[in-house]
């Protein structure tokens, strides 16, 4: 069942914390579950609501996904939308929520942030699902940051710099 996609509000903070803790436990995010704090989620939600965008995916009244980001603050980079993070609850992954949220984010950027020309994100090389999603939306790999990510399992992996040019 396709979830409802809507703008986030600060009232969603607790639901988003629960979502990110679950997603962090199953891998893919750049934070471990104990790094998903109220300050972290409250901070990105405030910034996204005030200066960027945050969308949630809601199914049966429960937040099962969230995506956010914002334009860079400097005038020379103001056309760049970045700091994107997307998370879908592990039990809801692979059912279209990630694609629906990302398509919703791009549509919102084109509608309410018409000055944006570039959408960028980072993704670890082992995250095949996320890379497949981003490439299917038109993102291309522009760079590889060698050994940027350290996994507690004891290995380093590359972080891929990806971008989508819009308009
Ligand atoms: C990455 C993530 C956001 C994708 O969301 P999702 O809801 O699971 O993905 P969707 O069901 O919308 O699928 C989108 C695409 O992902 C790819 N995909 C889905 N399942 C996959 C799998 N098992 N293996 C490889 N690719 C897969 C496909 O290209 C799919 O496209 P399709 O719609 O044509 O099938 C989600 O899995 C997630 O939150 N993972 C943990 C956190 C994370 O990794 N965040 C991104 C950090 S860069």
Task: Describe the structure in your own words.
This protein is of the alpha+beta class. It has a single domain, classed as Aminopeptidase, CATH 3.40.630. Helix content is 31%, strand content 36%. The protein is built from four helices and seven strands. The chain has helices spanning 13-25, 38-51, 97-112, 128-136; strands at 4-7, 53-59, 62-71, 80-88, 118-124, 140-151, 155-165. A seven-stranded mixed β-sheet has the order 1-2-3-4-5-7-6, with helices on both faces. A hairpin with a 2-residue loop joins strand 2 (53-59) and strand 3. It starts with a strand and ends with a strand. The model has no long low-confidence stretch (mean pLDDT 97). The chain binds coenzyme A. Residues 23, 28-29, 86-88, 93-99, 123, 127-130, 132-133, 136 line the site of coenzyme A (COA). Residues 23, 28-29, 86-88, 93-99, 123, 127-130, 132-133, 136 line the site of coenzyme A.
